[in-house]
Amino acid sequence: MKRIAIISDIHGNMPALEAVLKDIAERQITSIYCLGDLIGKGPSSDLAVDTVRTHCEQVVSGNWDDFISKESELDVVHWHQAILGEERLQYLNQLPFSIEFVMSGKFIRLFHASPRSLYERVQPWDDQEQRESLFESSDRCVQEKIADVVAYGDIHNAYMQHLNGKTLINVGSVGNPLDMTQASYVIMEGEMHSTAIAPFNIQFIRVPYDIELAIRQAMETDMPHLGEYKRELRTGVYRGLS
Hints:
Blueprint: E1 2-7, H1 14-26, E2 31-34, H2 45-55, E3 58-59, H3 63-68, H4 75-84, H5 86-93, E4 98-103, E5 106-111, H6 128-132, E6 149-152, E7 159-163, E8 166-170, E9 183-190, E10 201-207, H7 211-219, H8 226-235
Parallel strand pairs: 1-2, 2-3, 5-6, 6-8
Antiparallel strand pairs: 1-9, 4-5, 7-8, 9-10
Helix pairs in contact: 7-8
């Protein structure tokens, strides 16, 4: 049986990423997939990119990875671009859109936000038609095929739902969780590359980390939106709701 750790939305929070990687290593899982948003919000986008490149087998693009790697007039973008440097920005700009594979007879698609866009936000409480649309394909996906299992990031809100025989998973956020104040990731387990029906398991993991250390690291910089970042880490409440 193959076990894959699926992480997402690190957002430059190194204490959270280090805690998650330690937990993954202690479980002796060697394959890690990342669903984007390595950067932004937090102070350590550069270190987050370097660490993900070292530890993750596959990485897809997130919306922050996309817009910060492009030209912009926004000061927040310029700040993160200066931290990252040209080579890391080029790496982020060439990340693929999706990861697709077969496991235990199920066709699985992983992406950041939706099969259509890095910027389309789908919440667990949205109408069923919108949630079911996440199983569809688009010209951005690798295969023109309806998925049996979808895992995504973006919303920082971990959940699993079964919709008409298909399974929808949000893996939550490592560095900026907005449902509870612990880092989140998912373990997916099954027979890799097998089209035969076989045991298949999904496990949600929550990892405590040193939130105050993450905040001190942010306070040691002149990063933008520091107050909003501190509140989100301490409360798990999205800044757009405050």
